[in-house]
Design a protein that fits this description.
20% strand, two-stranded antiparallel ribbon, 9 strands, Rossmann fold, 277 residues, seven-stranded mixed sheet, alpha/beta, 2 domains
């Protein structure tokens, strides 16, 4: 079977299974099993596919029909133009999180802290984009930190990143110009409304802190002041209905210049705040 036919077969199976973007997913999975760059599939459409690759493709299609995300099947996700390894131990990054990077790159930060780093997308991207910055990334999960270390080496920034196992600020002592975080923020009552691609595959600890989902923001707004240099900034991702509540947490904690940032779909996606003293 040639690659074009394989992609067509996969597209049909995914489409019949009710998977959105069936053609895109089939193309990405075919590129993965055939070890071809996804951007160059068209150049290989007439290539014969090996029996081993056929078997891997069928297994990948079965996984996708069970709503396992393509990124988890191939073990990688693109973020800010870079390829990051992901495993079952970390959140599958979303493109909306690039909203934080776009804002962070406006801030002249020499020392950066990324809380709850997961796969490391925020801290590693900032280290790669700001070549004179020193970055500390934390996570409560040893397994997540291992993934972040792998990604830091992949992008050649491991020498400028310190990896610390920590529950929020518990193991930290230094001060920073910028603190970033994409914390778990989904409330318990929202979990049942999540898509199978999310609830069945993302680590629960990365999705929800329990309760109303706002506990991490209470911790960050209550403690970040102790870890910021003068006029230091905090940027956190938020759920699209949490903006005003989280904004008030920052204001009540003494932060200024508190702004709600929208993603490309116009939804509230992040908050940036400055601590003036």
């Amino acid at each position: 079977m040639i690659l074009r036919a394989l992609i067509a077969r996969g597209t049909s199976a995914l489409d019949q299974g009710g998977i959105l973007n069936a053609a895109r997913d089939a193309r990405l999975l075919a590129a993965h099993v055939c070890d071809i760059d996804a951007s160059r599939v068209t150049l290989h459409e007439m290539d014969e596919v090996s029996e081993a690759a056929l078997a891997r493709f069928d297994e990948a299609i079965t996984q996708r029909l069970n709503h396992r995300p393509v990124s988890r099947i191939i073990g990688a996700r693109q973020f800010w133009g870079r390829n990051f390894q992901i495993t079952d131990d970390v959140l599958d990054p979303r493109g909306d999180t690039e909203t934080l990077i776009a804002e962070a790159l406006k801030i002249p930060a020499k020392r950066i802290l990324d809380l709850g780093t997961g796969s490391g997308i925020l801290g590693i991207t900032l280290a790669a984009e700001q070549v004179d910055a020193l970055v500390v990334v934390t996570d409560i999960s040893k397994a997540a930190l291992a993934v972040a270390k792998t990604n830091a080496k992949r992008h050649h920034v491991e020498h400028r990143i310190e990896f610390i196992e920590s529950d929020w600020f518990d193991s930290l002592h230094d001060k920073f110009d910028l603190i970033t975080s994409n914390p778990p923020y989904i409330g318990e009552n929202e979990l049942e409304g999540l898509e199978p691609d999310v609830i069945d595959y993302d680590p629960m600890i990365a999705l929800t802190p329990g309760g109303d989902g706002l506990a991490p923001y209470r911790i960050i707004t209550g403690q970040a002041q102790n870890y910021l240099n003068k006029n230091g900034r905090v940027i956190v991702e938020i759920g699209h209905l949490q903006g005003n509540y989280v904004k008030n947490l920052f204001l009540n904690a003494g932060f200024t210049d508190v702004q709600i940032l929208q993603d490309l779909d116009g939804k509230d996606r992040a908050i940036v705040a400055r601590y003036p003293v």
